[in-house]
From TrEMBL:
Originating organism: Phaeocystidibacter marisrubri
The name this protein goes by in its record: Uncharacterized protein
InterPro entries, A to Z: vWFA_dom_sf (IPR036465)
Lineage: Bacteria, Pseudomonadati, Bacteroidota, Flavobacteriia, Flavobacteriales
Length: 376
């Protein structure tokens, strides 16, 4: 006789490399991909908290990073040959695509929790019809339904009920199919604010913003692989970037031209064939810049400028008329900045997430389309 023994779950103990890799992944996000600075910080943490011992040192960890494909050595031509022997010490370390993907996955796990990859990767809709996800309900067969969607058990049962006294026969009226949700593809533009205010007053807002951006991009790439995703950044102007550039993002000496970002996002989405389109905007709030028709910039960092704010509301309304919802991730807790996001989101009839610098895993969520507010 066999028996099963249950005991309290004990998580598998991480190896020294795995523990250091978790810390290094966080540091490389803060340093915008600067490996040398991240390793210097790691050495300082090691000296203070004894992260390693004589059996496994930081140097061992660095060698493992290179051996496992997380780091690669590159030749720095400016430093090459400076030691006078023609050999030089011009090698420098940089992260690989494997590390970039690890950083995005780490941000996804941190912010949205662990999600299983979906091979089909489409979005549920409230409409039934030919689709991928079964609802558990049955409906009569209709011309054009796939043969593999017919429930033979239920159809045979119907035949016996409908023709109890006749020889066995299966008619079209007996056939039923298992209903499914129609699932749709989505085209998404992810907007990231890289204005100077994202690091102003000693507050690092760009690192949380990058984490949200990387989590969203990894979520879309893994959970909805059939979707399209474009990423743009906006400061004084707006321009597209590759997803691989997210870990390296830095703020510039820019104001916040939210209108330029929205104009570029809508221009990108107009060229997409998908019927379902959306914009994710990650910002710390207040727009402070516009580019005029003559090429000059109108800037005002003091308060919420009515002229700039009006242009932003017009863009929100324009997106709403195109049936393009805007979901805003607000990386700040300033009530003044949140007021802008609130009015902007109301104009678009979209959604907003509010979070502080220390609470990326916890959001205040407002859905203006459904008039709903809740903590997540």
């Amino acid at each position: 006789m066999q028996s099963t023994r249950y005991k309290k779950y004990e998580p598998k103990e991480k190896s020294p490399f795995e523990r250091l890799l978790d810390i290094f992944r966080e540091l490389i996000t803060y340093t915008s991909g600067d490996v040398d600075v991240a390793l210097d910080w790691l050495r300082e943490l090691d000296a203070e908290y004894q992260l390693t011992d004589e059996n496994y040192t930081i140097d061992d960890f660095i060698e493992d990073l290179k051996a496992k494909g997380f780091l690669r050595e590159e030749i720095d031509p400016d430093a090459y040959g400076n030691d006078g022997d023609g050999q030089g010490n011009g090698g420098r370390l940089s992260i690989t695509a494997k590390t970039e993907q690890l950083i995005r996955k780490g941000a996804l796990d941190q912010i949205f929790g662990k999600l299983k990859k979906s091979g089909e990767g489409n979005h549920k809709t409230p409409f039934s019809g030919r689709g991928d996800e079964k609802t558990g309900d049955y409906r009569p067969y209709q011309f054009g339904d796939a043969l593999d969607s017919i429930s033979m058990t239920e159809s045979l049962r119907n035949s016996q009920i409908n023709h109890p006294h006749s020889d066995f026969g299966l008619t079209e009226d007996d056939l039923v199919v298992e209903d499914t949700h129609y699932r749709a593809q989505m085209s998404t533009v992810l907007m990231i604010d890289i204005s100077h205010s994202m690091i102003l007053y000693g507050e690092d807002r760009i690192t949380p913003a990058k984490k949200v951006a990387m989590a969203l991009s990894e979520l879309i790439k893994t959970r909805y692989p059939k979707d399209t995703l474009d990423v743009i950044v906006f400061g004084n102007d707006a321009w597209p970037i590759d997803i691989a550039e997210l870990p390296y993002l830095k703020v510039g000496p820019y104001h916040t031209n939210t209108v330029a970002g929205l104009e570029l996002a809508l221009d990108i989405l107009r060229r997409k064939r998908n019927a379902n389109k959306q914009i994710f905007m990650i910002t710390d709030g207040k727009p402070s810049c516009l580019k005029e028709r003559d090429g000059t910039y109108y800037k005002n960092s003091m308060g919420l400028d009515d002229y700039i704010f009006g242009k932003c509301l017009n863009m929100a309304a324009q997106a709403r008329s195109l049936k393009i919802p805007i979901t805003t991730f607000m990386i700040a807790q300033d009530p003044f900045l949140q007021q802008f996001v609130k009015r902007f989101t109301e104009a678009n009839n979209g959604k907003a997430f509010y979070t502080g610098l220390d609470g990326l895993g916890s959001f205040i969520f407002e859905d203006y389309e459904k008039n709903r507010r809740k903590n997540i």
